[in-house]
Amino acid sequence: MVEVERFGEPTNELWEYLEIEIPVGVSNRHVHLSQQDLEMLFGHGHRLKARRELGQPGEFAAEEVVTLVGPRGVIEGVRIVGPLRDKTQVEISMTDAYRLGLRPPVRKSGDLEGTPGIAVVGPKGVVALGEGVILAARHIHMHTREAEKLGLKNDDRVRVRVAGERAQIMENVIIRVSDKYRLEMHVDTDEANAALLTNGDTVTILH
Amino acid sequence: MVEVERFGEPTNELWEYLEIEIPVGVSNRHVHLSQQDLEMLFGHGHRLKARRELGQPGEFAAEEVVTLVGPRGVIEGVRIVGPLRDKTQVEISMTDAYRLGLRPPVRKSGDLEGTPGIAVVGPKGVVALGEGVILAARHIHMHTREAEKLGLKNDDRVRVRVAGERAQIMENVIIRVSDKYRLEMHVDTDEANAALLTNGDTVTILH
């Protein structure tokens, strides 16, 4: 689990320049399931078993894994992330997409219209998704109070700087605001590996 | 092969601002071999067979492939890139590195001191490298004339902008100048996938 408790009350002028440190959480490929698909894959009445809490309150990596089967390849051991959602959603990296033979678009979570489908295989059954595979758009979760202090609102886009040997500035980073969120930037494994980021590293929002 | 012939004589003021389009070449994992290691892996007197020319004159992807065996995993079908070199060098992505169980540094080609080793397996033998595995530092090849016009010299570092949904600015991009080079930026597959770049896309140098 990444560190998510570094954000305190503003103590100096750094705040005004948005130069706060944002902890990074790297999202490996994973699947969010609907109740119906959960039962199809793992059996009637099945309940997910939490294996590890994730950075956002209530979210957890489950014990359960599935196999993804695309037109050109297979990836086994893909983690289910709970809790359940209204619609099943498969989040992969572009590296995974080449392996599976898919070309998913970059999308915000839940925005699945027109995305490719895939076969998901569990121990008790198979679900043939008609849509639901995405490259998750990079984003920063923040609490409503934090967003207010930073002058940001939900769906704003910011630029983020990563330091180090593979230093870079990422554009089009979406701000996601809720009373339930903790400050954390989510990137996928391609983005993390390209920038040599690992869980708990920090980045800064550029003003 | 990427397009490498777009670079002509300067015709307008864009030149002065370095806003030329640089074609991108994505480097998948590959191995450069020494004569000795070539013969160890493929047999005495073996000569590489060219399969496909690459963007830089004289460079080619060979028919030959090897298997990389690291402490935690194996990657098969890794392409040999010719011509032969003084020292064997294995270029992988960080995604590959996790799979193999290695932590190679970002290095310029040929700068192998202190890098991790790996086992390379061919049809006729095995080479246990004591060093030679790197994440290739991203770089732009350019002809001496082009570098002069752009006011750049070998080993300079520039910033490069990638457009698109995953727009970004890459820092620490190394300039490599030679009378033998054609204008082309080389990135590895993590960098390409993170920025949604494919062969023949173009990027710009920021001034």
Automatic annotation (TrEMBL), chains A, B:
The keyword Endoplasmic reticulum does not apply. Its cofactor is Zn(2+). Keywords: Acyltransferase, Metal-binding, Transferase, Zinc. One of its GO terms (biological process) is 1,2-propanediol catabolic process. It catalyses: propanoyl-CoA + phosphate = propanoyl phosphate + CoA. One of its GO terms (molecular function) is acyltransferase activity, transferring groups other than amino-acyl groups. The keyword Transferase applies. InterPro entries: PTAC. Pathway: Polyol metabolism; 1,2-propanediol degradation. It is an enzyme of class 2 (transferase). Pfam families: PTAC (PF06130). Its EC number is 2.3.1.222. Involved in 1,2-propanediol (1,2-PD) degradation by catalyzing the conversion of propanoyl-CoA to propanoyl-phosphate. Belongs to the PduL family. This is Phosphate propanoyltransferase. The lineage of its organism: Bacteria, Bacillati, Bacillota, Clostridia, Neomoorellales.
